[in-house]
Amino acid sequence: MHINATTVIVGDKVVLVPYLPEHVPAYHEWMQNEELQALTASEPLTLEEEYDMQRKWREDPDKLTFIVLARQTGDGLDSSQVLGPHDACVKALPMIGDVNIFLHGKETDEEFYGEAEVMIAEKEYRRRGCAREALQLLLGYATASSVGHFICHKPPPQPDQSSLLPLPPTALLVRISESNVPSIKLFEGLGFQVTKRVEVFAEVEMRWRAGAA
């Protein structure tokens, strides 16, 4: 079983749930948007291809993917609850984006890293702190720690044959278009520093550094 096959993480603003088949139609609709394609460096897929991608993301041991749901007033959820992705109170929440870590290499490799990404697709939920909290929750869960500005609301992930988690925080990396100043500032606030500029792709590479935030 994939490490986040049933994991639900509850924050103050958002809830993270596994990427399930019922999420695919909405995700497919998002990714027909040219702005989101540009921001995520993605190509549009057919609906069938999107279902294939969902299965791959769920099954591959090098991908940790969550759908971001928005908390609602009076939903009654709190971070101490043990919830499943099919619970009615979770399924009632609106889907607003996704947050991921893609693992590259083996833990014993010198160049091993986990590349983090976040997308808030629904415009009405942008600039509300949803992306920041989604990242805090995911990075706290993936590293089994609350270092810096991360949050860990779940028991530490246990390493097994299907996962390289938990990650050392220093293995975290992001790549962002150098023109995407809000995203760069978001990750700086979470303890990431620009460590490389890739001019051919007009992007920056950022890594987590202790004490950087």
TrEMBL record:
The keyword Acyltransferase applies. This is Acyl-CoA N-acyltransferase. It holds the Pfam family Acetyltransf_3. It comes from the Eukaryota. Keywords: Acyltransferase, Transferase. Residues 14-193 form the N-acetyltransferase domain. InterPro entries: Acyl_CoA_acyltransferase, GNAT_dom, NAT9-like. It comes from Mycena indigotica. GO terms for molecular function: N-acetyltransferase activity. Belongs to the acetyltransferase family. GNAT subfamily.
